[in-house]
Specification:
alpha/beta, about 280 residues, binds NADP nicotinamide-adenine-dinucleotide phosphate, 12 helices, single chain, six-stranded parallel β-sheet, globular, six-stranded mixed β-sheet
Length: about 280
């Protein structure tokens, strides 16, 4: 870590637990690469304490913070302003402190779309099928709709998909049990559930009827190659892993706090992936 001066800009990630977060490593890489006088630190903040803690960070001169589990919904409530990305996602993952105020946004949708494009996939190429209707599905669905994509949701709990469709007009719904058959009508399928993550069962999506042009994206990045991606790759389908989304979603926050728009490249990917592979 570089030596800080009295002018250093400081940001961090608020979560509980926060020990698993790769964000300090990711932002630390960029701070070092661009020779920035700044730091990005883990902020272990217990559930319920974020409103007080965030006002404290603001008062202490922090530039801002990322917000992760379990604070993303609470952050939405206490921000002085929230932008459209946060409003449509119903959650905040990035706080920017400016002029004594806390501005909230949600960069997950941006990160998802930027990662797709980095893989050469244009989101509006064809209809997308999202598996899951949780927090990240909300952000991804909103971003895809904004990009002009036709979006269908399949969620285990249909009521939750219906709630999402009420909030995001234009969203279509199919039953969770029909997701395999629905693949044929889609250009992109996205796993937004934790299924396939270390400690969770695989999603068990049957790709045998999928068109050869289907792009398979998995937002899970631990492991880097999920059972879904491995099955898709074995079938010759194009794959988009979740690590790139994590890297790209960090760009707007870093830019706002430290004044440099950072690059997401192979060197960064390898640096963060090495930490995941070491687990
Ligand atoms: N790559 C990235 O940058 C990035 C960003 C955000 C999230 N993620 C990953 O995305 C995943 C989901 O995160 P989230 O915040 O959206 O979670 P969440 O809000 O808790 O939503 C979880 C979703 O998964 C569904 N689900 C959970 N267990 C299931 C099961 N056994 N069978 C079928 N469906 C199941 C839930 O369905 P019900 O409604 O039926 O409960 C819900 O729709 C996590 O693994 C997270 O690490 C990655």
């Amino acid at each position: 870590m570089s030596i800080l001066s009295g002018h250093s800009r400081i940001a961090g990630i608020a979560g509980w637990p926060v020990t698993y977060s790769r964000s300090p490593r990711l932002h630390g890489f960029w701070l070092q690469r661009y020779g920035i006088d700044g730091a990005y630190v883990p902020l272990p903040i217990r559930p319920g304490n974020l409103p007080t803690a965030a006002r404290g960070l603001l008062a202490a001169g922090f530039a801002g913070a990322n917000v992760t589990i379990p604070h993303k919904l609470a952050a939405f409530e206490f921000c002085d302003t929230v932008d459209d990305t946060a409003r449509r996602a119903g959650a905040v993952n990035t706080l920017v402190f400016r002029d004594g105020k806390i501005a909230g946004s949600n960069t997950d949708g941006y990160g998802f779309i930027a990662n797709l494009r980095a893989h050469g996939v244009e989101p509006a190429t064809g209809p997308a099928l999202l598996l899951g209707a949780g927090g990240s599905a909300r952000a991804v669905a909103a971003a895809l709709l904004d990009a002009g994509t036709v979006v269908t949701i399949a969620n285990r709990t249909r009521l939750r998909a219906e709630a999402l469709a009420r909030d995001l007009p234009g969203l279509r719904i199919v039953d969770w049990d029909t997701k395999d058959a629905a693949l044929v009508d889609h250009a992109l399928v996205v796993n937004t559930t934790p299924l396939g993550m270390v400690g969770h069962e695989a999603i068990g999506l049957d790709l045998s009827g999928a068109p050869g042009s289907l792009v398979v994206a998995d937002n899970v990045y631990v492991p880097l190659e999920t059972p879904l991606l491995a099955a898709a790759r074995a079938q010759g389908l194009r794959c988009v892993g979740g690590l790139g989304m994590l890297l790209h979603q960090a760009v707007p926050g870093f830019h706002a706090w430290f004044g440099t728009k950072p690059d997401v490249d192979e060197e960064l990917r390898r640096f963060v992936a090495a930490d995941l592979l070491a687990q």
